[in-house]
Each structure stands twice: as structure tokens, then as C-alpha cells.
Write a structure and sequence with these properties.
- It comes from Lotharella oceanica.
- The chain has about 110 residues and is mainly alpha-helical.
- It has one domain (about 5-110): Son of Sevenless (SoS) protein, Chain S, domain 2.
- Helices cover about 55% and strands about 5% of the residues.
- The chain has five helices and two strands.
- It has helices at about 5-15, 25-40, 55-70, 80-95, 100-110, and strands spanning about 40-45, 50-55.
- It has a two-stranded antiparallel sheet with strand order 1-2.
- Strand 1 (about 40-45) and strand 2 form a beta hairpin.
- Helix 2 packs antiparallel against helix 3.
- The longest helix is centred in the middle third of the chain and has 15 residues, at about 55-70.
- The protein is extended and about 65 Å long.
- The model has no long low-confidence stretch (mean pLDDT about 85).
Length: about 110
């Protein structure tokens, strides 16, 4: 049956625990945003003005970040390829200037075509 891409991603990322990988931060940020909007920061206020903070929300947000950071300390098992790293770095430098990329896109395909 159909499984939403984020569901498949979550299953795959759980299998990667303990291995090196770069988690997709779009899913993490979406989870954090949804949780932020869905759960109140303050559980309740008493008549005397005491504020009860939603600790469960704080714990869950911390857990989301901790899960993402688990991958940070893991080493990759593949060999370093300096030539490939150089190509990637060169491409990154060439695409940093957003205005230049915008202008280039119109030189390649002018407006209205």
C-alpha cells in the first residue's frame, strides 16, 4: 500500500541510528513547527498568577533535536575521495551568489519564453 514519503523516511532513519548519515532537516523542522503550533507553551494559570509550563512539550522538542544530533558523531565508512570533495566544493562556491544564479536563469531562459 501507499506510505507517505515522510513515513518511509522515518522508518529508514530509525534503521540508520549508530551510522553516519545526514538527516533531512526539512522533516525535523516540520515536526518541530507542527508540535510548536499544536501544543500550548503554558498548560494552565492559577488564580494567583502561577504559570504551569508544558514540560512534555519541552521534552519532546528536545528529543527531536537530540535524535537529529545522534548522527553528528558517527564516522562514514567509505573512503575519502579528494577529487570528488574538490568538485563539490567548486560547485558550492559557484552557486553561492543567488543574484548571479537568478540572472543566469534569465539568460538561459528569458521571461515570456
Amino acid at each position: 500500500g501507499y506510505h507517505p514519503p515522510s513515513q518511509e523516511y522515518r522508518a529508514m532513519i530509525k534503521r540508520q541510528k549508530g551510522r553516519a548519515c545526514v538527516p533531512y532537516f526539512g522533516v525535523l523542522l516540520r515536526d518541530m513547527l507542527c508540535y510548536e503550533e499544536a501544543k500550548p507553551k503554558v498548560k494552565s494559570k492559577t488564580q494567583d498568577g502561577t504559570v504551569w509550563v508544558n514540560i512534555k512539550k519541552c521534552e519532546r522538542m528536545g528529543q527531536l533535536v537530540s535524535d537529529a544530533l545522534l548522527f553528528k558523531g558517527n564516522r562514514y565508512t567509505h573512503k575519502s575521495r579528494p577529487h570528488v570533495a574538490s568538485l563539490i566544493e567548486k560547485a558550492m562556491r559557484a552557486t553561492r551568489d543567488e543574484n548571479a544564479l537568478y540572472d543566469l536563469s534569465y539568460r538561459i531562459k528569458p521571461r515570456g519564453t
